[in-house]
Amino acid sequence: MATTDDIREQIIAAAKERFGHYGYPKTTISELAEDCAMSAGNIYRFFAGKIDIASEIARREGLEAIRQVENLLQCPYRTSRQRLEEMIYSDLRYTYHLLENRPKVLELAQIVIHERPNFQVERLRREHKAISRILQDGAKTGEFEMPNVARVASAIQSATIKYRFAQLITDQPLEDLERELAEVLTLLVRGIIAKSAVPSFPPTTIPEITPIDTADVSVG
Prior knowledge:
Layout: H1 4-22, H2 29-35, H3 40-46, H4 50-70, H5 80-99, H6 103-115, H7 121-141, H8 149-159, H9 174-192
Helix pairs in contact: 1-4, 2-3, 4-5, 4-6, 4-7, 5-7, 5-9, 7-8
């Protein structure tokens, strides 16, 4: 017998398929119910409305993006600066490819951002924690100097917000975004790098593509 969680997952899977193929506006609760072999009333037992289903899908996509880049925190052969920069670049590449050439997925993201702007709260909290961890490691090794790790992490997160789901903000191609991000990171890291390292401080270079950057991000 299907559990409550099983039914929720069935509805979400059907919605991802419908939204990805036909688009959010053209999908109805009745169609989702038909896909799930249940009544529309049963859909409403699990979700208050169509936007709530879409918000859950978007929330999960956001969490998957941060899960991917969190893996970079485990690498012991990178400086804290390298891990910070690679984390933000990987986030840019993963989310960019998620939305690239997928107008229905981009449309869904734009609607959710407008209707449920808080859907990314959990993702942003985890991202802040990851940035803070990198900064703390850098402070312990003497690579970084800063008065307050949490505030600096918030500043870095805010300054680089454009590079998460970039197509929701700009129509710049990925190459331009990567080049721009290198300049932004150069300025940010220069502000926290240990003073002894400032005279020889090199600008940010765009990191090589990693397996995370080219991961399968298909929807549905």
